[in-house]
Amino acid sequence: MALERVWQALLAVVLVLLVGVVLVQAGYVSAPWHIDHGEVRVLDDRSEPKAVIDVEVADTRQEQYTGLSDHDSLEPGAGMLFVHSSEDDRTYVMREMDFPIDIVFIGADREITGIEHARAPEPSEDGESLQYTGRAKWVLEVPRGYANETGMAVGDEVEIEYE
């Protein structure tokens, strides 16, 4: 009887581990030990960088849902890059955000298609109603004002590298 319980417990542990692996592989849950990083460069008309941003990469559903809401702030030159499988109309919200950001929409051709300046939600707001839409394959979030400070503009070419 005791041996049977040990086997049942072992089977339960193996099943939980298998479900966890499947969820990570399918992109529903990110592996807690790994954060993808990369670099985004926005180029001027001479193909010189006008902005270089070190980014965390959000390429799973869970990472994209959480976004920057678990950050207290962003330093200039830091951001988050959201990676989508194809270009489409994308709507981003300010869910549980504590600070304002610029949202930069980047098309499949790696050109900026739009820039939104998003305010932080008021204490009485949850941020879901603060919606910003643009056409993009990639979406870059940086500190509010950074896009203007560096001269980012619609039509700028963008180089994207990430793990």
UniProtKB/TrEMBL annotation:
InterPro entries: DUF192, Saro_0823-like_sf. It holds the Pfam family DUF192. It comes from the Archaea. This is DUF192 domain-containing protein.
